[in-house]
Design a protein that fits this description.
Number of helices: 6
CATH superfamily: NADP-dependent oxidoreductase domain
Helix content: 25-40%
Strand content: 15-25%
CATH topology: TIM Barrel
Shape: globular
CATH class: Alpha Beta
Length: 204
Amino acid sequence: MQYRELGKTGWQVSDISFGAWAIGSAWGPVSDDDAIAALHASIDRGVNFIDTADVYGDGRSERLVARILRERSERIYVATKAGRRLDPHNAAGYNRENLTAFVERSLRNLEVDALDLLQLHCPPYEIYYMPEVFGVLDDLVRAGKLLFYGVSVEKVEEGLKALEFSNVQSVQIIFNIFRQRPSDMARIRALYDARIRDKVHQRW
């Protein structure tokens, strides 16, 4: 297994990590025993980073991750997400009361005192023009409820906009055989930086 530093966290995380959506049973039934066996097998092979969310199985995924954290002695980094519990899912819901409640729920599910990494779960684009939302996250860091925060996004532009907030440590983006645009993110970021530096509109 190879490892790389995640943002400015100082963490060395495995290039291949464990995505815990499926063990929440959103893609079909998965027994607790099978889920735990899959997690153990991954960690045995060097995985030390798990991605989950509060909506995966309505918290079931987080609770299974909590169990694996109890059963392993290695340092396992866990990223969870918040925001998709909102109904309707809109920018107004990303307020202090809701974000704090989501964090507290994940803390209970994961059985930890502080979340390693909280990512906003594909928030509406307006969020990136609402610095008060990131101010709430900063306050939660200061309160010891989470160590770091980042965003989960669907589009490259959203990820780049999020990086304008200096304490954003991670950008998780959809990337698969059908959605390849993030592979060209270095070129896009260079264009974006040039646009900011020169204050000239660039056509991506």
